[in-house]
Automatic annotation (TrEMBL):
It comes from Urochloa decumbens. Residues 28-439 form the Citrate transporter-like domain. The lineage of its organism: Eukaryota, Viridiplantae, Streptophyta, Embryophyta, Tracheophyta. This is Citrate transporter-like domain-containing protein. One of its GO terms (cellular component) is plasma membrane. The chain crosses the membrane at residues 6-26, 33-53, 59-82, 103-128, 181-205, 299-331, 343-361, 382-400, 431-453, 473-492. It is found in: Cell membrane. The keyword Cell membrane applies. The keyword NAD does not apply.
């Protein structure tokens, strides 16, 4: 049974956690506008300065497998983007799209299903900028699509042990097989995905009308002109042809007719031969580069599929992702600095500070004390008990994050369910997985996926959007409560 730490440690630890929480929610607070990343580091430093956690324990609390997985998926995502994977996905999402509402539904479905295989963090890393571009091309607001991406990624990731880190912990501790886990949560995931999509449509119905086809075409033409892709050069060629009374082909080929300048016939022939050799060389180099790009694209797809297969076989997720990333770097056979520069290192630093801060808060004993007080009322063989247990998980998952909540509560919840029946134990683990994952949609701090979407959207090169804490909460709270409630009765209905 967890007990509270000495009162000074509880007070100082809660203060440090409060500083972290405040800066994570309000990164530009007037009296300390240092941002989320520095705020997370400040929270971790305060935990050490206040002697809530020792320096050695602080280093040990940093979850390197999660950081490694996040780093590697950013690298893999960069290579997949270069391989055109997301252009194909864009074609799939945009194929016969009937407007913004239809596109929102497609984003929800594709994100949820992909998150079950690629993990929610991976999908959010590689899809955020892509979704923003889709919205910008159709003159649609970014916020509904960012909310759809983040919430659908969390809901979809609940269906498999590889969907998110807390599911991995649950699958390992409970010894539930991949198929048992999948079919045990699948009905709840599908129902939750549908309800979440309907709620998004209802809340943003008018905003998803977007621009008409003519307006979108006009915007694309203006963007083309601004980016130097307008047809103006062709018009200039025609004007030049008219001025000189020559055909456009003659104007384009004028440079090719100046091969015999300041020389006799033999010099001209040598110039023509040199030009032919140069043309053949360029053609050969161009063909070689095309074959190289085709090979790299094919290799990126193959190793990504291999990574997914390795996940399903139970291999270490972090090292599997890192191995995949390094394989892509090596086969690319070029300086990887350009790809590595696209990794959001500030996000990795933020998570490091968050791990230290959350670990220190857990050492105060407050999260454990909440469970000790509520455990007698959280029996899963009664509706009231399931309700109380779900509320505890929702609360702790948003205060101390879902992974520490699962580590803290897993054994206690399973031990309580063991007094009922063996099947109740399995259902208790699946219930913990479902509620702790969907709890991530309650606020920006509820899951890593939310923070990834927020930070990636803020730094996007096109259609950047600052998804604030309150704009997320307005949708996140009702969605989380309703989706959780609808999914709970469906947990464990299919037994394998």
């Amino acid at each position: 049974m967890t007990q509270l730490a000495p009162l000074p440690k509880v007070i100082l630890g809660s203060l440090a956690f409060g500083v972290f929480w405040m800066l994570a929610v309000f990164p530009s607070v007037p009296f300390l506008p240092i941002g989320r990343t520095a705020g997370a580091l400040l929270g971790g430093v305060l935990m050490i300065v206040f002697h809530v956690i020792s320096p050695d324990d602080a280093y040990a609390s940093i979850d390197l497998p999660i950081l490694g997985l996040l780093f590697a998926t950013m690298v893999v995502g960069g290579y997949l983007k270069g391989a055109g994977m997301f252009k194909h996905l864009g074609a799939l999402l945009a194929w016969r799209s009937q407007g913004g509402r239809d596109l929102l539904c497609r984003v929800c479905v594709v994100t949820a299903l992909a998150s079950a295989l690629f993990t929610n963090d991976t999908c959010c890393v590689v899809l955020t900028e892509f979704v923003l571009e889709l919205a910008a091309e159709r003159n649609l607001p970014a916020k509904p699509f960012l909310l759809a991406l983040a919430t659908s990624a969390n809901i979809g990731s609940s269906a498999t042990p590889i969907g998110n880190p807390q599911n991995l912990v649950i699958a390992f501790n409970s010894k539930i097989t991949f198929l048992q886990f999948f079919f045990g949560i699948l009905p709840a995931m599908l129902a939750g995905m549908g309800v979440n999509t309907v709620m998004l449509l209802c809340m943003y119905w008018k905003e998803l009308e977007g621009a008409g086809p003519d307006e979108v075409a006009a915007m694309k033409e203006m963007e083309a002109v601004e980016e130097g892709r307008s047809p103006a050069p062709a018009a200039a060629v025609l004007s030049l042809a008219n001025i000189n009374n020559k055909s456009p082909a003659a104007v384009h080929g004028a440079a090719g007719l100046r091969l015999r300048r300041n020389g006799d016939g033999d010099d001209g022939e040598e110039s023509v031969m040199s030009e032919n050799i140069s043309t053949k060389h360029r053609w050969f180099m161009q063909c070689s580069e095309q074959r190289r790009k085709l090979f790299l694209k094919s290799f990126a797809y193959v190793v990504t599929v291999g990574m997914l297969v390795a996940y399903m076989l139970g291999l270490n997720m972090s090292w599997t992702a890192i191995t995949t990333a390094i394989a892509l770097v090596v086969v690319d056979f070029r300086d990887a600095e350009a790809c590595l520069d696209k990794v959001s290192y500030s996000l990795l630093v933020f998570f490091s500070g968050m791990f230290v801060t959350v670990s220190g808060f857990n050492k105060t004993g407050l999260p454990g004390a909440i469970w000790n007080f509520m455990a007698p009322y959280a029996k899963i063989n009664h509706v009231s008990g399931v309700t109380v247990l779900s509320l505890i998980i929702l609360l702790l998952s948003n205060l101390a994050s879902n992974v520490p909540t699962v580590l803290l509560m897993g054994d206690e919840v399973a031990a309580s369910a063991a007094t009922i029946s063996a099947s109740a134990v399995t259902r208790s683990w699946l219930l913990l997985a479902w509620v702790s994952t969907v709890a991530g949609n309650l606020s920006l701090l509820g899951s890593a996926a939310n923070l990834i979407v927020c930070e990636q959207a803020r730094r996007a090169q096109r259609n950047a959007h600052d998804l604030s804490f309150w704009s997320h909460v307005v949708f996140g709270v009702p969605s989380t409560l309703i989706v959780t409630a609808i999914g709970i009765p469906l947990i464990g209905k299919i037994n394998i």
